[in-house]
Specification:
The complex is a heterodimer. By secondary structure, chain A is of the alpha+beta class. Chain A contains ten helices and 18 strands. Helices cover 38% and strands 25% of the residues of chain A. The radius of gyration of chain A is 35 Å and the shape is elongated. Chain B is an alpha/beta fold. Chain B contains four helices and five strands. Chain B has one domain: 2-Layer Sandwich (Transcription Regulator spoIIAA). Chain B has a five-stranded mixed β-sheet. Classes of the chains: A alpha+beta, B alpha/beta. Chains A and B meet through loops of A and helix 2 of B.
């Protein structure tokens, strides 16, 4: 016969059985037998007292009489099963009410096992052992679940901390240059996003603006994006490229950021706004890019079909130049805003976004962005975007 | 949506018939199939895309990776009959610059730049 104790992290723990029975003779006799078998035994003479002991001592097994004053056995079981702290307690109902329908009722109301008071001492011993064994398994399951939950919580805290760092890399909305206002929108699809955007202040009247998107989701793209953002800082670009020309910057970046061994890469749009000369030069690498909403109402998309970064190290990215007028607005955005499916899989799409901008584009920038976000959410049917949403909206006075 | 992949040897290479989505969820399966073909010394891999409904950004990256790895092995990769939506996704990333696209197997095998 196995010993009623378990070894837990090197320490031998005696197992505890609680007997709840209002009949002292039967209770004391069973208690003596279990003590002889090596169990620690607690006793209570009715259900209410038994509940207090159960809460305080958390025994491995509770052996419960059916008929008792104050609170009977089945009512005791019901209270235990509704209490989140106690519900996994193992309960062996022991009674002379051993007709099949009574057994069924006892089990239905929350007992784990049933034992007739007329059972032999061998059967009683075997049932107690089975109950204690089940309690041990449940305890292990609970411990593992708690450990997993704690690890998960720690991981989520880490991710949130990393997400705050990524967000701290983004520019704040406001004036980013003489007569140039920027409003941003950033909604990562997971805690950590792979989209990043920023402003590169070349000089008083020359502003770089970029938005990059790392393929994949989660920690790895966020780390790769942060590393790329470091490359795209003004000092780093001056050192590596020596120019504010968007095409030259992407051509150089393409050499620094090859395809990863898992086929991950960046897409990017990089624009340089010359406030004095009223020009906007830009280059894209596999990115759906940006659009200019001119004061005249015209919408001009700035995407060009070309390879994402890392696809071919020999790629030379060209720069396109647009003239701009005061009142024109530039939207640099990830496709996460408009590539959102409705319940049938139909995408909201660039065309609908363009229509919305044509219709509401004269309102303040913040309102235009809120309006676009609301419409995308309405199309999607919920607020959980499948991909990162990142927009930098810029107004040139 | 899953991805079913079937290999069909042809005289100068292997046609990989794919049914489903070429996406992040199916990346390992695609990578393993293609890598096994490359390691067997295949000279020309033809990706038969007629039954591929969707390629996501991870899928595009895998196509670029396959193209680079085959180039390193002095082998080539071609693509056959991508659906119009997939063709659209690939055209923004200019994938056809790395992997020529054909409308029939004979042209792909002959390497004739006929379709696209």
């Amino acid at each position: 016969m196995s010993s009623p104790s378990v070894e837990h992290t090197g320490e031998v723990v005696q197992q505890t059985v609680l007997i709840i029975d209002d009949e002292p003779t039967a209770r004391v006799a069973l208690a003596s037998r279990l003590k002889r078998l090596g169990y620690r035994v607690l006793q209570a003479d009715d259900g209410k007292v038994g509940l207090d002991v159960l809460r305080r001592e958390r025994p491995d097994l509770t052996i419960l009489d059916w008929m008792m004053p104050e609170m009977d056995g089945p009512s005791f079981c019901e209270v235990v099963r509704q209490d989140p702290d106690l519900l996994s307690s193992q309960i062996l109902m022991m009674t002379s009410n051993d007709q099949p329908e009574q057994i069924a009722e006892g089990l239905a109301r929350g007992a784990d096992d049933f034992l007739s008071k007329a059972a032999s001492k061998y059967e009683i011993t075997a049932r107690v052992q089975a109950g204690v064994r089940a309690a041990g398994l449940i305890k292990r399951l609970e411990d593992v679940t708690t450990e997993i939950r704690q690890k998960q919580e720690a991981l989520e805290r880490e991710l949130q901390s990393a997400a705050r760092y990524v967000e701290s890399l983004l520019p704040a909305s406001g004036t980013i240059g003489p007569g140039v206002q920027m409003v941003r929108l950033y909604r990562p699809s997971l805690a950590l996003g792979g989209d990043l955007f920023n402003v590169v202040p070349w000089s008083d009247d020359l502003l770089g603006l970029y938005l990059l998107d790392a393929s994949g989701h989660g920690v790895s793209p966020a780390l790769r994006s942060a590393s790329f953002a470091t490359f795209l800082r003004r000092e780093s670009l001056l050192r590596h490229v020596g120019s504010s020309d968007p095409g030259a910057i992407l051509t150089e970046a393409n050499k620094h950021f090859p395809l990863t061994e898992n086929g991950h890469y960046f897409t990017i749009v990089f624009a340089t706004l010359d406030v004095r000369c009223h020009t906007l030069s830009y280059a894209t690498a596999g990115h759906s890019g940006a659009f200019l909403h001119r004061k005249s109402g015209e919408v001009c998309w700035m995407a060009r079909p070309n390879l994402p970064l890392g696809f071919d190290p020999s790629t030379v990215y060209g720069t396109e130049v647009l003239s701009i007028e005061p009142g024109d607005r530039l939207y640099v955005l990830s496709d996460g805003l408009y590539e959102v499916p409705d319940s049938t899989g139909n995408l909201w799409g660039q065309d609908r976004l363009e229509q919305l901008v044509r219709m509401h584009g004269q309102r303040p920038l913040q309102e235009v962005l809120s309006c676009a976000l609301d419409e995308a959410v309405r199309w999607l049917g919920h607020e959980q975007f499948p991909d990162d949403v990142a927009v930098m909206a810029v107004e040139i006075d | 949506m899953s991805l079913q992949i079937k290999e069909r040897p042809v005289s100068q290479g292997v046609v990989l018939e794919m049914v489903g989505d070429l996406t992040y969820a199916n990346r390992e399966q695609f990578k393993m199939s293609v890598e096994a073909i490359r390691q067997k010394g295949c000279r020309h891999l033809i990706l038969h895309m007629a039954e591929v409904r969707f390629v996501d950004s991870s899928g595009l990256g895998l196509l670029a990776l396959v193209s680079q790895n085959f180039k390193l092995s002095q082998a080539k990769v071609s693509m056959l009959k991508p659906q119009s939506y997939v063709r659209e996704i690939m055209s923004l990333a200019n994938i056809q610059k790395l992997i020529p696209v054909y409308d029939n197997e004979q042209d792909a095998l002959a390497g004739q730049p006929k379709a696209a």
